[in-house]
Amino acid sequence: MAQVKVECPNCHRQTVRGKFCIFCGYSLESPQPPPRATPVEEVTQQEVECPNCHRQTVKLRFCIYCGYALEAAQPPPRTVSVGEAVQQQEMVPKTTEAPKPLEAGPQQVVETATLPKPEVVEVQETTPAVVTAEKDLMEQLSSLYTWFFRLVDLFLEGEADPEAFSELVGEYSARVKDVGGRLDAKVLEAEERIASLNAELNSLRVRREAGEVTDKQYVLRKIEIEKGLEELGRRLTYLRNPFGIRLASLPSFKAQVDERLRKVEEEGGRLGLNEEAIAQVREVSNRLLTAISFLEEQHRRVMRELGKLEIRRKTGEISQSEYQSLKQRLEKRLE
């Protein structure tokens, strides 16, 4: 495609007109004095898709829309905070002459031009040890729920007497509460980290608007934070789904749990159960239903989107091929 060149006010090199310089990543839309006039010439460059903003950009060092580094040899650093980036920008070349020590004195005032460091929440990756511990908790809880509902089925089918059933239900209930409580702590930890990263992202936007950080620093840190949020989101979904239930199977799974609970509540007394045992069955069942409630919201959201997609096809807003493509994409989220 034909692109217009302008001079970057930061590195003074000829770059393709866009939001960012393709050589240094400097924002070409920053409130700076207009650059001196330069000859305009037409160039032809190969287009590629930016892996960050997914827009077609010229194949050079930086995306002209979001400033993302396109060269594989120079990926954005993983742990550079905004404060560190500001410090790096303010570093000056070293000289061979050793600096003279400052003499202490009450009248001496040393001024610095450094910006205040922001509060930065590090984006930490989940370690293998943490993943193993969480996996063990998930497997324990899944096994406990499986044994518990098999026990309920045996009792309703008359293959377990009320006394043995009550003792085992009490045991399973205590173990579910213990393991589930430890898993809840992991969920709370992930939710708190998500909240911290979202708060930092909002603060970063404010600092950018105030001119405290440059557009390039903003983009680099924003990429790090969003990557951390994506990882934490996957981890949270995993922790909240001890059975590994597919969204497509969720309605039937929930119906089975509800049906077992209904039978125990309606027939438990007649079959010889005391109120304590019935209450324990209710507690374990409701604990599982609460844990998977977020999956119900995801399932409803996907089904709403599928319904709206069908209406758009019938109104002629989208073609049959577009409908099939979008439908397959939504249905994959149910798997």
Describe the structure.
The protein is mostly helical and 335 residues long. It folds into 3 domains: 1-74, no CATH class; 128-291, no CATH class; 299-335, no CATH class. It contains 8 helices and 5 strands; from the N terminus they run E-E-E-E-E-H-H-H-H-H-H-H-H. It has helices spanning 82-90, 128-156, 162-209, 215-239, 250-267, 275-291, 293-315, 320-332; strands at residues 2-7, 14-16, 42-44, 47-49, 56-58. It has a 3-stranded antiparallel sheet, with no helix packed on it. A hairpin with a 6-residue loop joins strand 4 and strand 5 (56-58). Helix 3 (162-209) packs parallel to helix 6 (275-291). The longest helix is centred in the middle third of the chain and has 48 residues, at 162-209. It is elongated, with a radius of gyration of 30 Å.
Q: Approximately what portion of the residues adopt beta-strand conformation?
A: 5-15%
Distance between the termini: 40 Å
Largest sheet: 3 strands, antiparallel
- Secondary structure category: mainly alpha
Shape: elongated
**How large is the count of helical segments?**
8
Mean pLDDT: 77
Number of distinct beta strands: 5
User: What would you report as the Rg, rounded to the nearest angstrom?
Assistant: 30 Å
**What is the N-to-C order of secondary-structure elements (H for helix, E for strand)?**
EEEEEHHHHHHHH
Low-confidence stretches: 33-44, 72-126
Oligomer: single chain
Helical residue percent band: 40-55%
Tell me the domain tally.
3
Spatial order of strands in the largest sheet? 2-1-3
